[in-house]
Amino acid sequence: MVKSLLNLIRKPKSGSEPLTQLDVGRVFGASQPAPARAVSTERRGTGVDLDAWKQKDLDLLQSAWEASCAAPDDDALANEFRTALHNLHGASGAYGGGALTRLSGSLHRLVSGLESLHAETALINLHVQACRATAHGGGEAAEDMADAVCDALEAQVQARLRDEDSEAA
After folding, report:
1. pTM (2 d.p.)
2. What are phi and psi of 9, to 5 degrees?
3. Which CA distances in Å does 163 have to 6, 11, 114, 143?
4. How far is the C-alpha of 126 from the C-alpha of 42, rounded, in Å?
5. pLDDT tens, position by position, for the chain (169 residues)?
6. How many other C-beta atoms are found inside a 10 Å radius of the C-beta of residue 86?
7. Between the CA of residue 119 and those of 18, 22, 40, 41, 157, what are the distances in Å?
């Protein structure tokens, strides 16, 4: 399943080919806040609800990406997306690490070398959606799926970065 999703992602040929937009929102509910939990995730004595912070960071990443897609030539919006990603990745360890840290790290590696985010719209969109998906589910099966998605996305980013390096040489 993951492989078939990644096969949809392909580097556009000289900007003439429309990019595939993937959205896992239909599976998890489009941009809806995480469901309320019976057990609080508040850190004892700190008054900090990490799940709420994580959800806000994920929402900010999603909205910054959508704004950047709506105005692809606006460098300020691209920088807002990069900042939201940087903040999410930096906080991901506090949010439990795991798949979110891997996904946000993979996305960070991808966008750090791009002059224009929209050269890799489909791959960035898939990363953003996968980051959002980490706020749902749990258990060993969810971790196994998350690991498979992380492995596949990291491989795609590495392949893209190798392609860019070989084209530059």
Report:
1. 0.67
2. -85, 120
3. 17, 10, 13, 30
4. 30
5. 445 545 545 444 444 444 444 444 434 444 444 433 333 445 545 567 888 999 999 999 999 999 999 999 999 999 999 999 999 999 999 998 888 999 999 999 999 988 899 989 999 999 998 898 888 766 676 777 778 888 888 888 888 888 888 887 7
6. 14
7. 11, 15, 41, 38, 13
Q: Which of 22, 23, 24, 2 minimizes the C-alpha distance to 136?
A: 24
3 state SS of 27: helix
Residue 39 near residue 50 (C-beta atoms within 8 A): no
DSSP 75-137: HHHHHHHHHHHHHHHHHTTTTT-THHHHHHHHHHHHHHT-SSGGGGHHHHHHHHHHHHHTTS-
Q: How far apart are CA 46 and CA 85, in angstroms?
A: 25
3 state SS of 42: strand
Closest CA to 11 of 149, 114, 150: 114
For the record, the structure tokens of 155 come out as 């491989």
